[in-house]
Amino acid sequence: MKKVTIIGAGNVGSSVALYLAEHKIADVYLVDIVEGLPEGKALDAEEAAPIRRYDIELRGCTDFSCMVDSDIVVITAGIARRPGMSRDDLLNTNAKIIKSVSEKAAQYAPNSIIIMVTNPLDVMAYLTLKTTGFALKRIVGMAGILDSIRFRYFVSNKLGISVIDTTAMVLGGHGDSMVPLPRYSTVAGIPITELMSKDDIDKIIERTRKGGAEIVGYLKTGSAYYAPAAAVAKMVECIVRDKRRILPCSAYLRGEYGIEGLFVGVPVMLGKNGVEKIIELELIPEEREALHTSASAVKTVIEKLENLGII
Amino acid sequence: MKKVSIIGAGNVGANAAFYIGEKNFADVMLIDVVEGRAKGKALDLMEAAPVRYYDAKIDGSDNIEDIAGSEVVVITAGHVRKPQMSRLDLLETNAKVIDTIIPQIKQYAPGAILINITEPVDALTCYIWKKGKFDPKKVIGMTGVLDTTRFREFISKELQVSTANTTAVVIGGHHDYMVIIPRYASVEGIPITQLLPQEKIDNLVKRTRAAGSEILSYLKTATAHYAPAAALAEIVEAIIKDSKRVLCVSACLQGEYDVKDLCLGVPAIIGAKGVEKVIELQLTIEERHQFEESVAVIKNAVDTLEI
């Protein structure tokens, strides 16, 4: 069994653990600095195992050394924004957390592949790359898969068809900088542009863009975690089982799409080595421009962190 | 648990029962005229259940009355091809087998949705529909799901990507004239026309067309049965779970694609009511031409049958 360590035992982290267990993908170690939290959640999930029929190992610990020799490290650590906290304060605090977690990953799991979930993930992935010095293909961010699965759900809902037959391609970052590509989004291979009106597609794009906020609007004190965790679990599965699936993820670009030295959400092939390949799609000028706008937003935040001396 | 009957406990029928059992979504009644064959295979499958964790009931019988109460009836009766035979060579022989089954279905499972996989599928699906005067929405031929799963497997092999979320659309007849549309074949939504050179695509299309014969040439005395049974189980599951899957099947057309009173491959929404909607694609002139050739072949075959 491969070993996956999840840093951060919050809702996203522990839901990832549960999905991985349900599909018996790997042994899972949940790590958190809050005493008792990872141990309690792991034990609870272990006690469900006899009924759910998984026999993987599930451990929780507060000591980073238990991540030793992990094949994959999923980073979901970070704090949520608190009242009175500015976005910059939040960025500053979380960047410091990610930097310290990345150092631990480099120390205990030097051969691992890192999946970055903490937002702003394109920036945090860059910070991890700089901190660990890992090979470029071994750091990948969870970005477009989440937007794609939300998009697919909305399409299937609108057309009254099974989600299984839908595909979607969403590039760039989450939310405002998301770059949806409807002509690469299909039902059983048939582009949705042939099956839905432009108006309906636009509505679905808008809803996807605000997909995270819609859930927060309902939950009020928390944000979405099932769909984000499902997206992460899919990435882990592709790597552990060397699936070579093509999924939109944040990967370090070296000239692809005309972008240099940044993590940006693009279609990548995920396999046992991490990012096996970056797929360059034929984009129309507007799509290309939207992707570049997304990239410059990432660059601005990186510069901010550089000025603070964190990167 | 809903009930699915499979008429014909040969390799395809028994494997369909196996796949349905593994996914545990319906009880299965296997029927075969050869005494003991259906019962033996069903018992064998049930004895695997404790280790495979299914509690769907799989039973066998040589009495077709036991299809009573089925939501779905799969027809995989009749003869299969031998090397060098074309699917159409089986038309007359298998139509006679179908003749004996239709009245029994009308008597014992009049409301069931019928899925035919007896070759030649398109022509005999049409025969079942017309001869039995069934509701066209409730008669489905298993064709395109198999052709697309084969094409998808070949695409994933060629590109070395996962088969998950490869898509393909194959329409027309389930024979040498099948219409494979590469621009609708995709990997995670990206058309394969962007990922593979035309020459490679042509080879994959050619291989898909001859895929049944490729397996037959290996097995010699049997035809393919895993992929066909998997394709059957996929359609059965969509009906039982009312999941509105978009699948390529042989549907009985009544004006869609400008075809009337003929069953042939098209993408359709499959749910509890059977073929709930035929999806009409915008075909190019070349695709339309291929499609019409396919229509002509099936029409000729159907015209030779007395309905």
Task: Output the keywords.
heterodimer, A: 311 residues, alpha/beta, Rossmann fold, L-2-Hydroxyisocaproate Dehydrogenase, Chain A, domain 2, six-stranded parallel sheet, 9 helices, 14 strands, B: 307 residues, 2 domains, nine-stranded mixed sheet, globular
Please, could you describe this protein's structure?
The complex is a heterodimer of chains A (311) and B (307). Chain A has 311 residues and is of the alpha/beta class. Chain A is 44% helix and 21% strand. A six-stranded parallel beta sheet of chain A has the order 3-2-1-4-5-6, sandwiched between helices. In chain A, strands 7-10-11 form a three-stranded antiparallel beta sheet, covered by helices on one side. In chain A, helix 1 runs parallel beside helix 2. Chain A starts with a strand and ends with a helix. The model of chain A has no long low-confidence stretch (mean pLDDT 95). Chain B has two domains: 139 residues, NAD(P)-binding Rossmann-like Domain (Rossmann fold), CATH 3.40.50; 161 residues, L-2-Hydroxyisocaproate Dehydrogenase, Chain A, domain 2 (Alpha-Beta Complex), CATH 3.90.110. In chain B, the strands form three sheets. Chain B has a nine-stranded mixed beta sheet. A three-stranded antiparallel beta sheet of chain B has the order 7-10-11, with helices on one face. Chain B has a two-stranded antiparallel sheet with strand order 8-9. The longest helix of chain B is centred in the last third of the chain and has 19 residues. Chain B is globular, with a radius of gyration of 18 Å. The mean pLDDT of chain B is 95. The chains are: A alpha/beta (311), B alpha/beta (307). Chains A and B meet through strand 10 and strand 12 of A and strand 10 and strand 12 of B.
Give the helices and strands, then pairings.
The complex is a heterodimer of chains A (311) and B (307).
Chain A: E1 3-7, H1 11-22, E2 27-31, H2 37-52, E3 58-61, E4 72-75, H3 87-108, E5 113-116, H4 121-132, E6 139-141, H5 144-159, E7 166-167, E8 170-172, E9 178-180, E10 186-187, E11 190-191, H6 198-209, H7 211-219, H8 226-240, E12 245-254, E13 260-271, E14 274-278, H9 285-307
Parallel strand pairs in A: 1-2, 1-4, 2-3, 4-5, 5-6
Antiparallel strand pairs in A: 7-10, 8-9, 10-11, 12-13, 13-14
Helix pairs in contact in A: 1-2, 1-8, 3-4, 4-9, 5-6, 5-8
Chain B: E1 3-7, H1 11-23, E2 27-31, H2 37-52, E3 58-61, E4 72-75, H3 91-108, E5 113-116, H4 121-132, E6 139-141, H5 144-159, E7 166-167, E8 170-171, E9 179-180, E10 186-187, E11 190-191, H6 198-209, H7 211-219, H8 226-240, E12 245-254, E13 260-271, E14 274-278, H9 285-303
Helix pairs in contact in B: 1-2, 1-8, 3-4, 4-9, 5-6, 5-8
